[in-house]
Prior knowledge:
Elements: E1 3-8, H1 12-22, E2 26-31, H2 34-43, E3 48-52, H3 60-70, E4 76-80, H4 85-93, E5 98-101, H5 106-136, E6 138-139, E7 142-143, H6 147-160, E8 166-169, H7 176-185, E9 194-198, H8 204-212, E10 213-214, E11 226-227, H9 229-232, E12 237-241, H10 248-260, E13 262-263, E14 272-273, E15 277-282, H11 286-291, H12 297-303, E16 306-309, H13 320-334, E17 341-342, H14 344-352, H15 358-372, E18 377-378, H16 385-389, H17 401-420, H18 424-431, H19 435-444
Parallel strand pairs: 1-2, 1-3, 3-4, 4-5, 8-15, 8-16, 9-12, 12-15, 17-18
Antiparallel strand pairs: 6-7, 10-11, 13-14
Helix pairs in contact: 2-3, 6-7, 10-12, 13-15, 17-18, 18-19
Amino acid sequence: MKNKLLIIDDDEELLKLLKKGLKDEFLVATATNADDGLNQFKVVDFDVGLLDVVLPDKNGIEVLNEMKNLDSDFPIVVMTGHASIDLAVRAMKLGAFYFVEKPFSPKAIKEILKRAIEQSTLLKDYQSLRKVAEEKYSFSGILGKSGEMQDVFELIERVASAEATVLIEGESGTGKELVAKAIHFNSPRKENRFVAINCSALPESLLESELFGYTKGAFTGANKNKEGLFEIADGGTIFLDEIVQTLTTFQSKLLRVLENRTFYPVGSTEEKKTDIRIIAATNKNMEEAVEEGRFREDLFYRLDVVKIQLPPLRDRKSDIPLLMNHFLDIYSEKNHKEIKNTSQEAMEVLMRYSWPGNVRELENAIERAVIICQDDTILPEHLPERVVKGEEQEPSNILDYEEAKEVFEKKYLRNLLKMSGGNVSKSAKTAGMTRQNIYIKLNKYNINPKIYYPRE
């Protein structure tokens, strides 16, 4: 089947020549002015366009812009005379595939048009594959194809339908709030409110007022009664980020909510009921905070019904290309740019870096790269200097022995399960361990062997 070509040029003799010379390869439609060309473009699904930059009724650059606004991926080759080279260069910057100087032969332009169609087809296929990959390896907006993230997705799915309190642990920038939202919006509470509170950002008195509400006269400035979030978001979910940063007086009141589903507004003796699911998160070691007396042990056990451990980006680097493409699409569209690619050198830089700021740092790096990039490909020079240099993490961010051992154990267990197809007995035999010990460690790290079963 022939490809459909639209040629817009006011030179009728040239149009006749091109139509005759290209009719074996293309279904050729012609227009001698911009309005006629644009009207045809709007009703016919053309595969490629050939456009003169100088037209009697409208500048060819304006026509190019209108076409690109209607279909940003439509390949356009511009034609120019010697006096309009500057216009042709502008057209290239605006997304034209190529420009040719008049005069030219139908044979020469034929090859250029075929290349334009081939590149456009490849680009569409690539974008389609990226979209499929993103859909396949995402869960409620969270991306990850690594074994570590697949474990997280599986656990989110299991706990979403339950009413259990969830504790999310992970470094800053790993996506704890995204996970909390995924749990809420996949739960029976999804029609009700989801509210996120950063406990470390508010003084204790303000935190209590926000959550529990207050009565008129409870403190200076309390001129009227105010409902708290436990009342406003009744039936929904409250996400308490950085819960370890709270003081023990607040922790006592939160414990009451978890145990009895009741609370007292600040300044009130009237008990109120609430139907709230609490999801808590921390980037600190909660067990250590309990041992040091900074966090109530009874509250810790109430929160730690189901724990979701989010891996740092350095432990799931296989997800970087997927995340990179996702952020590239977002910030290219936001900044009205057509950046489609990442050079191999830039990708190697991203894969080498340790990402102490995790996914948030990667997202910021890609946003910066998109803003700086003036072409269609991200290069190393577009990335932050610290990323390109691969600067080491500060010593305070180096894992301690126990954390390093946990990272190793989790990877080791996943590799065992991959090799055995999820067979715990085979995994135990390979590792020289008992099945019981393997199960203990799998439970410790919330690793589900069923994920590794062979797929039919």
